[in-house]
Amino acid sequence: MTTMHPNNPCQAACLTPSTPGGIAVIQVVGINAASLVAPLVETRRPLAPTPAAAERLQFCRVIDHREVVDEGLVAVRSVPTGQCVVDLNVHGGPRVVQRVLLMLKNAGAHIVEPNDLSAHTWPAASPLEREGLLLLQQAATRPVATWLIRAMNQLPAKIEALTHNLLAGDGRQAQSWLRSACEWFPKMRYLLEGIRVTMLGAPNAGKSTLINHLTRRDAAITHPMPGTTRDWTEHHAVVDGLPFSFVDTAGLRQTRDPLEQEAIRRAQQQISPADVVLLLIDRSAPLPPDGPLELFAETQMNAQAPPVLTIWSKSDLPAHPSHGSADAGPPALSISAATGAGLERLGCRIIETLRLAGWQESPGYPFTIRQATCCRQALSALADTTPGLAEAAQCLQTLAKG
Ligand SMILES: Nc1nc2c(ncn2[C@@H]2O[C@H](COP(=O)(O)OP(=O)(O)OP(=O)(O)O)[C@@H](O)[C@H]2O)c(=O)[nH]1
Ligand SMILES: [Mg+2]
User: Which atom of ligand 1 is nearest to the CA of 211?
Assistant: First the structure.
């Protein structure tokens, strides 16, 4: 049986990732969502919307032409927008999900992206909250999500206070806040997309061992034989609440082996996409005469060079005399992937280098390109010789309106 409501079509989406998982949540939203889903499931109690507070899950069988497609749980609720929301919790195999979505589509639902549903099911208190809720789905760590929730709650009051000051003829507070906000915004990329750190160094410097330690996984092959890593590989980890991807690369050295030359060329290509490069130097081994540093310097000439942190690895072993005294060279961080010494400081150093120290405590700043553009426009209005206070206030009002 098909339930079509041409004037009030229901929308359906799978809210969980499309990868295989234990459970998938398929949500159907619309005034008639319960009557659209009812013929597709067998339940003990009829599907009827209850206020969200009284929502109860019940066991269901998803039935397609008498065939049991899956067994799951279903809940129906009404939300303040007047819509009915049906949550179907089924098994998370892609085939089950596709089949259920197809059944919903045949029953008259529009299949949409998860974001399109949230406007109905999570009515936001302010346009800024709405933008924040959409972005929340991209927060890969809990501290990033917490930061975002705080920012979207604090920002409206901050904008209102600054607008009030501007309209009262005082632009100083707004100017200083807008400057900090514009400085902050480029860092949102690190919170949402993560920080990319490329490991470089001579063969055997300890790059792969360090990556395994940082990610707490035995992901990369390590071996005393120099030249173990060939293809570059990427490994994810969380440091200080921030998402990181560490890129392991082939050791840099002069070689005639064409295969290794290609591996080194690919390692060098991993410099420019990095946010930070870690240049590992094994102080327990003789200093290579013209190896990694020269090959590294070659790529620095033309690349939009990211910051480089020089790291002395294997600090648990005695330093080789060819390195001279520790005080002679540039200041570097000593670490040992064998004992873990210095690794905590390494994380802090990367975060400081990107000027992210204390990011969790930073106040609510703009978190979307649109908001940051409004801030930049307000700031440039204030930079005029005759300060454009009213213009700046208007930019902030636009920011708050969404
Ligand atoms: N004592 C000590 N040994 C280490 C440390 N880090 C790595 N090693 C050893 O050094 C050797 C080389 O380590 P790898 O991590 O494979 O070195 P790599 O830089 O990835 O080398 P390539 O892949 O060849 O470029 C291995 O035998 C490791 O066990 C350390 O901090 N202390
Ligand atoms: Mg390696």
Answer: 15
pLDDT tens digit string along 197-224?
999 999 999 999 999 999 999 999 999 9
Question: Which string of DSSP letters, residue by residue, matches 345-384?
Answer: HHHHHHHHHTT-TTGGG------SHHHHHHHHHHHHHHHS
Q: Which tens digits make up the pLDDT trace of 276-304? A: 999 999 989 987 766 556 656 666 655 56
- Rounded distance between C-alpha atoms, residue 216 and residue 343, angstroms: 12
39 lines ligand 1 (CB under 6 A): no
CATH number at residue 61: 3.30.1360.120
SS3 for 116? helix
Q: Do residue 110 and residue 211 come from a single domain?
A: no
- Token pair, residue 13, equals 């989406």
- Region for 358 from its dihedrals, namely left if φ exceeds 0, alpha if ψ lies in -120 to 50, beta otherwise: left
Which amino acid belongs to residue 137? Q
DSSP character at residue 287:
P
352: its two tokens: 């400081």
- Segment holding 260, helix H or strand E: helix 258-268
Buried b (16+ CB within 10 A) or exposed e, 117-147: bbbbbeebebebbbbbbbbbeebebebbbeb
Cβ of 27 below 6 Å from ligand 1: no
For residues 244 and 213, is the Cβ–Cβ distance under 8 A?
no
Distance, in Å, from the CA atom of 242 to the CA atom of 136, rounded to the nearest integer, reads 14
Number of domains the chain is built from: 3
Domain-embedded: residue 82: yes
> What is the extent of the structural domain holding 379?
127-189+368-401
Burial class (CB in 10 A: 0-12, 13-18, 19+), 283: buried
Q: Which-ligand-closest: CA of 337?
A: 1
| Whole-model pTM over 0.90 | no
